[in-house]
Amino acid sequence: MRAGLVVIGAGPAGMMAAGAAGERGCDVILLERNEKPGRKLMITGKGRCNVSNNCNDVRELTANVPRNGRFLFSAFSKFMPSDLVEFIESRGVPLKVERGNRIFPVSDKASDIVDLFARYARENSRIVRGRAAELIIEDSRVKGVKLEDGEIIYSGAVVVATGGVSYPLTGSTGDGYALAVQAGHRVIPPSPSLVPLEIHEGFCSELMGLSLRNTAIKVIDTAKSGKVIYRDFGEMLFTHFGVSGPMILSASAHLTDMEKSRYRISIDLKPALTAEQLDARILRDFGENINRNYINALDSLLPKKLVPVIAKLSGVPFNTKVNQVTKEQRAGLVKLLKDLTVTVTGFRPVDEAIVTRGGVDTKEINPATMESKTVHGLYFAGEVLDVDAYTGGFNLQTAFSTGRLAGISASEGII
Question: Is 260 helix (H, G, I), strand (E, B) or coil?
Fold first, then answer.
């Protein structure tokens, strides 16, 4: 079998690469191991598909990619979120912008985005089911791909867009890393990113299922003398193992060299109030409940599930009448509400991560084309690269931008 270009992996980066190259007249084979393309794309955004972020300043975009963001400057510049929105809407899928500038299909159906990109790929390439076993490389130039069943597809260029190792049941099992190593590339060992965190404190399991909004967090690195390495405001969720939710997932991208108890998370349950304002609020609540027990006077201040946990942590006996709560005890409650601290013991498993940290070393890739600096005609795109971004659509934008750049660059050398 022969083709001008072989794209390995029919995820967002691969489908975009195949479609973009085929549109330009290149003979493209899109190689996919799953029965249907876009399997991982189908589960993004909790099945709604957060396709991008309505952020059209390239510097702001790269700032939302904490790992090797500057590497993406060229890819983003050539295909911005506004370009992606036009691309999608011009093909019949209307989009909307939600809180945090997150972009979703109006239908709230990831299947609409998957169908659109699958159609784009089919119209401009031949989709072949199979798994790439190795690259065919001669004289530092890629010549094609050998499949797991022994068949060879000869080509003038290859784009590796196989994803990382998150959600392995969707086919992201690290195949691209092996291909990169075969081509002489350095691969940064993969680890989870945008992943829930396991917490030491047992009260998290008591709060399982409790979602907090309009909350602030600080992540503190005890190995760096208590330096705050991340701050955020928004939503978080307590789970049986610890914490999750948008803020926590983004925070996880900053936790490197994970060691038990190295990182602490300070949760401000009342970020809109200063300590003085919060104390005044508590005094007012106590004044309205003067004959009630302490445990029953916190209902208007906190979610019901949180009341017994905070009451216990504050050290004030539950049956204390509120008019007997001392100034010192009240100060302790204020401090607790402004600084509820939990200790991180580790990441959840990588198969629970949204994306993978690590991958093909970006120092060995030309950022203007996505071509390997060691093997001519070999390109990389998407999560297989050592780039990972925050939640909010930035990772999918990275996949689409690098995929399009890789596909166009590969096609220009072989048409």
Answer: coil
